[in-house]
Design goal:
The structure holds two protein chains of two kinds.
Chain A lengths: L14 H23 L5 H8 L2 H33 L3 H16 L2 H9 L1 H4 L2 E5 L6 E6 H4 L2 H27 L2 H9 L4 H31 L11 H12 L2 H30 L17 H6 L10
Antiparallel strand pairs in A: 1-2
Helix pairs in contact in A: 2-12, 3-4, 3-8, 3-11, 4-8, 5-8, 8-10, 9-10, 10-12, 11-12
Chain B lengths: L8 E10 L2 E11 L4 E5 L6 H8 L7 E6 L2 E2 L2 E4 L2 E4 L2 H7 L3 E4 L11 H11 L5 H14 L15 H13 L5 E5 L7 H15 L4 E5 L3 H7 L2 E6 L2 E6 L1 H6 L4 H11 L1
Helix pairs in contact in B: 3-4, 3-5, 4-5, 5-6
Classes of the chains: A mainly alpha, B alpha/beta.
């Protein structure tokens, strides 16, 4: 009988995988070849417009809309989520009604209705309802311009979705955590912000970033307001020059860049949040100096029992 | 804190319904300060519910609970009891520590952060003082070297010892334990019970719901036996455990001890 040192280990081979990978690479090469060498894609036009100031200005508007839409809908959606979770029957039904309404209406309908608000109401005023008292009054048409209508419409619709995502995250946190925080007498805001929210974020973030990404692309919808964001700018240009495909490619690549950027942020945020999950049993950020001594005397760690 | 006269619990005619089910049926119990009371009973007998009412995690439907004369969940003015707002209830809970069956440590915080959260939130201590106190408490439960560990990396027994330390951080007059060893592997039960035994000699009032008869025999001043939301037998541990009067107590003890 041979000793173990002389026995050779032969790794298992999977020839079909190699064939499959080869076919996939071939298809990829064909696609790249056709896109790169078919002159009708007009990559020269693409290159000329890609960093054009008009395009960049449109891109700026798109980014600004995305940013404002995200920030406002997280704030408003957070409030809605807390209302939905509130033990007050009235608050939770009102929030439910809001979410029901704005999840049911297509964004484009909301935008056009808002844009025509000045037809319904000539002026918007601040005062006490059901009395004649008015402190300030504005022409609707001046308040709801293209940009503010776009921000307002996106926020109204987006916050309905954001609220549900945040609520889902809160519901996903073990009930024992609420009880432990209550038993320690932590004030409600501290319980929500310091105990429940950090744990809820782990489930909120993946679907939350999904929503931000679809919002970034959804801003293209505000072209119906003739607002010069990225997509509307591109349409304006190709209607004039008739270079439809290369200009759409300019938009497509910019949307790709935005989405990749957001995905990168998502990756970094999720990695930062996962710190308590990582395998090292000791929080290395705090106690790098004492960690070796501590690990030496450490008792064997067990899996969590419940 | 030694032999402090504080921590007197008085339960008077407490009933609690879950829908139609009567979880607590006219329960009255006196728990003198600094004593150890062990509540025994089959599952579903209402012992955990009783414990939760003492901390107002569960609202009572009838009757009153007082700690050192203060009504739990209410404020008395003359002949009227005013229901407290959530904020005031939370403040009341500072006097009562609660240890859960499933530990419920905050998993996104280190052990040290778990321990300083409540004292800092209640402005009892500055962060620095709270940290000092946290290390003292970690010495009590024998886990000083775990201060910077994440709670989920600890064994069940260690987690429960940290949970006890966390409850002690507010210097409560009363400590409530809801089946503190039921979620533990058998070989880890002893380390948690040892910590509770240390507390039993510190003068804090302890109320422990458990199935550990040996622990009750050794530590309890008073043993209460509950069935179907009622207290059927109570008295000194020696009397209840060795010479039970009620047939249900005898039946339960014979099953648990066999």
């Amino acid at each position: 009988m041979k000793t173990h040192e002389t026995i050779k280990v032969v790794p298992a081979r999977y020839p079909l995988r190699i064939v499959g990978a080869g076919v996939a690479l071939l298809i990829l090469a064909i696609v790249i070849q056709s896109v790169a060498f078919n002159p009708r894609w007009e990559w020269g036009v693409f290159a000329r417009w890609f960093f054009d100031p008009i395009i960049l200005e449109g891109l700026g508007q798109t980014l600004l809309l995305t940013l404002l839409g995200t920030v406002l809908s997280v704030i408003f959606g957070g409030v809605l989520a807390l209302c939905r979770l509130s033990s007050s029957w009235l608050l939770s039904s009102l929030a439910w009604g809001y979410i029901w309404l704005f999840r049911s209406l297509p964004l484009i309908v909301v935008l056009i209705v808002l844009y025509n608000f000045s037809y319904l109401y000539d002026t918007l005023s601040v005062g006490i309802p059901f009395t004649g008292i008015t402190w300030a009054s504005y022409q609707t048409i001046n308040v709801l311009g293209q940009f503010s209508t776009a921000v307002f419409g996106l926020t109204l619709v987006q916050s309905a979705y954001t609220a549900e995502i945040i609520r889902g995250g809160f519901l996903g946190v073990d009930h024992g955590q609420y009880e432990a925080a209550s038993a320690l007498g932590l004030p409600a805001w501290r319980r929500t912000l310091r105990i429940i929210l950090p744990q809820a974020l782990r489930t909120i973030l993946p679907s939350g970033f999904n929503e931000i990404i679809s919002l970034a692309k959804g801003t293209a919808m505000v072209y119906v307001l003739a607002m010069p964001e990225l997509f509307y700018t591109i349409q304006m240009i190709y209607n004039r020059t008739q270079e439809v495909i290369p200009l759409l490619m300019v938009g497509a690549v910019w949307y790709l860049v935005i989405t990749s950027f957001l995905s990168a942020i998502q990756y970094l945020v999720e990695r930062a949040l996962a710190k308590s999950e990582r395998r090292s049993a000791v929080n290395t950020n705090r106690s790098r100096a004492v960690a070796p001594a501590a690990t030496a005397t450490q008792e064997p760690a067990h899996a969590q029992l419940s | 804190m030694l032999n402090s006269p504080e921590g007197h619990i008085s339960i008077t005619g407490v009933s609690k319904y879950f829908g139609r089910h009567k979880a607590l049926d006219n329960v009255s119990l006196e728990i003198p300060p600094g004593t150890v009371t062990v509540i025994l009973g089959p599952s579903g007998s209402g012992k955990s519910t009783l414990l939760r009412t003492i901390n107002h995690l569960e609202r009572v439907d009838e009757g009153f609970i007082q700690i050192d004369g203060d009504y739990i969940g209410y404020r008395r003015q003359g002949d009227k009891l005013y229901e407290l707002k959530e904020k005031e209830i939370l403040r009341q809970r500072v006097n009562v520590g609660y240890v859960f069956q499933n530990f419920n440590l905050f998993p996104h915080m280190t052990v040290l952060e778990n321990l300083i959260e409540a004292p800092v939130a209640h402005r009892q201590l500055t962060k620095k003082q709270a940290t000092e106190r946290a290390y003292e408490l970690l010495d009590v439960v024998g886990l000083r070297n775990k201060a910077d560990a994440w709670s989920r990396h600890l064994s069940g027994g260690q987690q429960q010892r940290i949970a006890i330390a966390r409850a002690l951080a507010l210097k409560p007059r009363v400590m409530l334990f809801d089946e503190p060893t039921s979620a533990l592997d058998p070989e880890l039960v002893g380390e948690v019970l040892d910590v509770i035994k240390t507390l039993a000699r510190s003068g804090t009032t302890l109320v422990v719901v458990t199935h550990e008869i040996g622990f009750a025999r050794e530590v309890a001043d008073q043993v209460v036996f509950m069935v179907d939301g009622k207290i059927v037998e109570q008295g000194e541990s020696d009397a209840v455990l060795n010479r039970p009067q009620h047939p249900r107590t005898r039946q339960f003890l014979s099953k648990v001890l066999s």
